[in-house]
Amino acid sequence: MTAQPAAEAGYIQQFVERASSLYSLPAVAMEVLELTGRPSIDAAQVKSCIERDPALTIKILRAVNSPLFGLSRQVSDLHQALALLGMKPLKLLVLGFSLPREMLDGVEADSLSRYWSIALTKAVAAREIAEYLGYRNGDEAFIAGLLADVGMLVLMQDLGAPYAQFVRKAEEEEASLLEMEVGTLGFDHIILSSRLLSHWKLPPAIVDAIAAIKPAALTATLHLASLSESARTLVLADRLTDILAGKRLAALPAWVEAIAEYVPADQTDFENLAVRIEEKVEQLASAMRVRIDEKQAYGDVMMQAYDRLSEVAADAAFDVARRDPEELQLQSAWEEAKELTTAMRNFGERPLASPPVTAKPAKPMTAVATAELAKTDPRELGLDKASIARLDFEVQRCRQLREPISVLQLTIDRYEDLLLQAGPDEAIHTWRLLEKAVAAIVGGAGKSFVSADAVLMVVLPTLDRMQAVETARRLVAGIRTWSQARAAKGGMSPLTISVGAAAIALPPKNFPSSELADAATRCMEAARRSSGDSVKSIEIL
């Protein structure tokens, strides 16, 4: 670890010494630490000690009975809590709920609610992430998260309104608060927290986990391999708190990349995680009788972060396409494709765990082929051999993984009108833009390629029917928005698409993948016949 300059270390020490003289753990917490530090722990003594503080006892029982701990029955007293939870979780709750009253007195109400939003979100996120990663340190991670930011309270007391404004400015600019603190103060509030908690003689595992949170750019890679499970959990919870409670959306890619090293997941998992955290934060705030910020729903914040990520990813994908020699003749198409940023806002399913697969460029359609499509019953359309081979591979892979797989087939509504009004060249040009649009919107969630003339297939490994339908709906909305924006700038009339979705929960051995594609094609035709701009789906049993 890099040594700090003497001047900075001196400033930190001054704050720690001042805080140590002003704030001390309540007597009950100190006694619980002493009792539980003995070689032989007397549970009755610990229980009697806690019960001397009725307010603390009520807080603990409320927290224990909340869904946060998931107990099968209500707990009415500390004896039951000890029997069901054990000594360590109860001890940790005492420490977490025993902040010195002087530390909170006089802090401006908005600043205090901001602090509690951060602290409770970090605590709940740490517990949820520990469970998500299969770690057994959830209670320890929870308390570490709850206490990680006590240094903010010290700075609020010592620096007052200027520090509160400083915190607000960091949020408004979506900047790392820790980095800004280091740049201005020479140290950050996390190191202040760890030093103060160490002075209070809290368990070293909690202090070390908090100290593992380092100031860094929000987009910086999180290096977790060398950390303990508790520290790793807390670092991930700290970054997730930046995203959810601080709306620092730029932090999402590095967080997703870091957690993907330990467990496979996708956007739906993360949105559900965000929703669970929000619910439990509200329950914990109620149990502790503290006020938290009026905030945007965490699930919505996670979707916004993915939307922004999609915009960035689309720009990067198009930049690569622009440099491809085969794409140079489509320079004007490239300029129009930039308008897809708008479409990205309608799409939230953008997992990062696996990079998008770059498919071999599809053979461009001919004017004759597209004209014939307008007159052909699409149920007679056949998949080309390359499409069948790609789909076969993905079906077999999902069968081995014992995962579902879905297929989307999509086409432009009233394509014959487009051909007649704009001519074959413009129709082909529009189709190529549509291909780029779909690939950019779907991103890493699936693989898209032309499966037949004027029909685009999207293969969605590991997605079930509901997820596939949601993806299809977002594609329909995204393409509609993009097309309307293009038309408003003097382009052709807005276009819409029809999408068919077919899914199978677990492909059996020797399952013919063409059956999945054919089912999706039939659904696509049903959507097109019902006026288009819609999705139809089926599940193969």
From TrEMBL:
Designated name of the protein: HDOD domain protein
HDOD domain segment(s): 22-216
Pfam assignment, any one: HDOD
SUPFAM superfamilies per record: HD-domain/PDEase-like, Nucleotide cyclase
